[in-house]
Specification:
With about 80 residues, the chain is mostly beta strands. The protein has no helices and six strands. Strands 1-2-3-6 form a four-stranded antiparallel β-sheet, with no helix packed on it. A two-stranded antiparallel sheet has the order 4-5. A hairpin with a 2-residue loop joins strand 2 (about 25-30) and strand 3 (about 35-45). The two termini are about 20 Å apart. About 5% of the residues are buried. The mean pLDDT is about 80.
Length: about 80
């Protein structure tokens, strides 16, 4: 758990609106004296048409693949993180 390691949850105003199946968590803490942000984001499974479609050739379910859901962990220096 992030908060057990000193990360403090923060409200991130830049998080996009809620999308079903997706989630974003934001935490801040100092890492080696540098204010840092931990961003945990999940992306829902995506259905993609692997064949290029155009106005005269619509997307086809026969050419669709489902990409797996993903989880991204990003840690970066962020001087805007609130101090404890």
């Amino acid at each position: 758990m992030a908060s057990g390691d000193g990360w403090r949850p923060v409200v991130d105003l830049d998080v996009p609106p809620y999308v079903p199946g997706e989630s974003t968590l934001t935490y801040c803490r100092e890492v080696r004296g540098v204010p840092s942000r931990l961003l945990i984001r999940s992306q829902a499974a995506q259905r993609m048409d692997v064949r290029p479609s155009t106005a005269d050739r619509p997307a086809s379910p026969q050419w669709s693949v489902v990409a797996p859901a993903l989880i991204y962990l990003t840690i970066y220096a962020d001087p805007t993180c609130p101090k404890p």
